[in-house]
Amino acid sequence: MKNRRRLHVEINHKKQASAVLSKGDKLSRSKPKADNDSAKARPKKLNRRLNEEISSESENENDGAPSRKRKENEVEEEIEETPQEKKLRLAKLYLEQLREEEEKKAEEEDFESDLVAGRLREDVLEQKGKLQRQIGSEFIAPDPIEIRLLRGHKLSVTCLVITPDEKHIFSASKDCSIIKWDVESGKKVHKISGGRKGTEERHVGHTAHVLCMAISSDGKYLSTGDMNKLIMVWEAATCKHLYKFTGHKDAVSGLAFRRGTHDLYSASHDRSVKVWNVDENAYVETLFGHQDVITALDCLGRERCVTAGGRDRTLRIWKIAEETQLVFHGHDSIDCVQLINEEHMVSGGDDGSLCVWSVGKKKPVSIVKRAHGLHGNTGLEEPCWVSSVAALHNSDTLASGSHNAAVQLWKCGRGFRGLEPLFSVPVPGFVNSLKFSTSGKFLVAGVGQEHRLGRWCRIKDAKNGLYIIPLKRQSKEAEAQQQHTHTL
Predict the structure, then answer these.
(1) Residues paired with residue 248 on neighbouring β-strands, in sequence order
(2) DSSP characters for 101-138?
(3) Which residues of 125-155 are buried (b: 16+ CB within 10 A; e: fewer)?
(4) DSSP code of 331?
(5) Distance between CA 381 and CA 374 in Å, rounded?
């Protein structure tokens, strides 16, 4: 019996010793021999200690048993899987993958269909002239350091346009020159110098103040008009002179290309509107109706244009095909106008008023008096003249300029009712022209020491040039937080 117990202890102790040695314990392989002699003297204590140690080791061995069993079971399962079962398993995996791909594809198609449906709705609203994207509240005032000034004209900048790809800006001035600018670098790409009076026959370009300009929606043609009754047509890419249109009997004050075409509309101080076809280098027709000089003109995609009639205090929408006109009576001398969409427009005048109009109503739907404050001596204050307006097409965002050293941005209420000031941007001088880029990423202001139509006032501290104003948008979360704070 003792020999059997000794043999059992010896076997277990060998296992114990090998495990302890691997862990760096002090046990050695020679201990089991010593235990044979010492077991006779104190067998109970030794057995108890060995049993405790053996129990502890067996627990450690049992800890790894489940993982070993799992591995053995997995191996057995792999071994036991028949070819038919493997085919069935792979077929199920393939079907599951196909189902996931189909679900993902269906989600993408639903998303695309929603985008297409939304775009179609916008197109329909745009054609009807009712599209108004609510983005005005997203814009935040730029840091004055980020505003860039492009200088190159010797006299006041009177007009400007931005190319459809937003890479270049064309500007013109009272110095009779035209400059093409690179938006990214702010450098001049090309300059068409102005000529002296009396050199019209031999000089390629303008010899009188350039008052207006327009660029076709495909960026192919640039058109400019001057005080000398002339309209010049240029190739926008190369600034090569193409045509010269004559026919107006006074200064050409407004130009616009109909979107998607090369039909050109022109307005003049001779109170007439003329239609030209640039592709054919041809005159089409003349329209009459204003009782005073026409100061501005604009158009979009429809075969119609809108004009501001100066001191006859009217805006007129000319329906070219029907040869009819809609007359809108508003504030005093209306000197600038731009279409917001096909059914709404914004105008400004020398009484300091900023007005939003709807084609369906003869009176303004929104009006802000003294939009740019007052100027003059105490007791003799007068409203600051609104000399330019701009609209980010099919949105609720407008801009206006004056000579109070600031460009003001506005937000239209829903349905174009009500005007709410957003923020102002410091711009010293007469703001003679304003244009939003198509994407709404920036606004360009053409500024000078004098008003584009006269020399009755001069701001000596102003710089003649272009101010490129970046328009940043805040995140949706920040906008929601701001609206919540405003509500509270």
Answers:
(1) none
(2) HHHHHHHHHHHHHHHHHHHHHHHHHHHHT---B--GGG
(3) bbeebebbeebbbbbeebeeeebeebebbeb
(4) S
(5) 6
- Amino acid code (one letter) for 165: D
End-to-end CA, the chain: 93
Euclidean distance between CA atoms 190 and 295, whole angstroms: 28
The answer to whether the predicted template modeling score (pTM) of the entire model surpasses 0.70 is yes
Angle, helices 31-41 vs 2-22, to 10°: value is 140
Q: What is the pLDDT of residues 178-194, one digit of tens each?
A: 999 999 999 999 999 99
Token pair belonging to 322: 């029907």
Angle, in degrees to the nearest 10, between helices 2-22 and 43-63: 50
Q: Helix (H, G, I), strand (E, B), or coil: what is residue 436?
A: strand
Decide: 284 and 266 in contact? Cβ < 8 Å: no
Q: Are 368 and 419 in contact (CB under 8 A)?
A: yes
How far apart CA 266 and CA 243 sit, in angstroms, is: 15
| 264, 223 Cβ separation under 8 angstroms | yes
Residue 475: DSSP 8-state: -
Helix, strand, coil percent values for the chain (each to nearest 5) = 30, 35, 35
Q: Write out pLDDT tens, residues 307-333.
A: 999 889 999 999 999 989 999 997 778
- Total residues found in the chain within this entry: 488
Q: Which residues of 326-365 are buried (b: 16+ CB within 10 A; e: fewer)?
A: eebebbebbbbbbbbbbbbbbbbbbbbbbbbbbbeeeebb
Is residue 486 over pLDDT 70? no
